[in-house]
Amino acid sequence: MKFGKVDRPEHIDFTIPPDHPDTAVVLKKNKTGANTEVYVGCAKWNRQDLKNFYPRGTKDELEYYSSQFNCIELNATFYRIFPAEQYEKWRDKTPEGFKFFPKMTNEVSHLRRMNDKVYEIADRYLEVTSLLGEKLGTIFLQMHNNFGPKNWDRVVRFVEYWPKEFPLAMEFRHTDWFNDDKVAQELYHLLEENNIANVLVDTAGRRDLMHMRLTTNEAFIRYVGANHKSDYPRLDDWIERLNSWKSMGLEHIHFFVHQNLELESPLLSAYFIEQLNAKMNCNLHIPKTTLPAQKGLFD
Questions:
Q1: Could you report the per-residue pLDDT of 72-95, keeping only the tens digit for each?
Q2: Which Pfam families match (predicted)?
Q3: Which of 22, 177, 180, 214 places its Cα 20 to 30 Å from the Cα of 287?
């Protein structure tokens, strides 16, 4: 993921901003007392993207990937709607408890920009995506960078149309969604009222997307490493924030690790999971990698 890439990440202040004041309100309101479910994964399972991860001789990349991680941020579904049998194959070759978090097709978000033609496309997408069954996690919809608040009515219509049996998270990138407090509050309220998660994106060049406003009891976080030694302390900071949210009642953590250049995402993920297990008393499997997770990797 090259979104938000900068040439000199050492010049970026990666400090996680304070929580939006309404985040604590949302967590308290939606608290049920259930144990916190935690899913951590990468964005892809391709061998060419995940360096130093697959053992020599690995024949089925998804099968091995799903033996190491409990989820995948399924970006492939952004580019096309696959045949029904493909979703069934993905479902059947992954173990019990594994979840896919698929990205909504770009026909909805980018090509047709939520116009009146997208509803048939969304229905077709959901028809095949639902074949993932119990392995279907939250679907996420990422809007184009230039999709701004002037399209508010389209967002409202789509949110109201969306079938509530499918968990949904939405990512808005146009800065005007967050620069104007009135616009931001209207957006957050719409998502909150419709039980739609507000995606948080942690990337170097777009710190405005770290608005730290949860709209449901789900933290859907897309973390983009900068291929720099700062990637590790940034993950440490996230563990502290997630632990704080857990104490407030957070019950769903969905954390996906990217890099500007997908060199060592499994290493970052393994480090994050190991620290998360220790801090939050989780019991996630720590992925095996051919190199030890180390903060000095990019020195």
A1: 999 999 999 999 999 999 999 999
A2: DUF72 (PF01904)
A3: 214
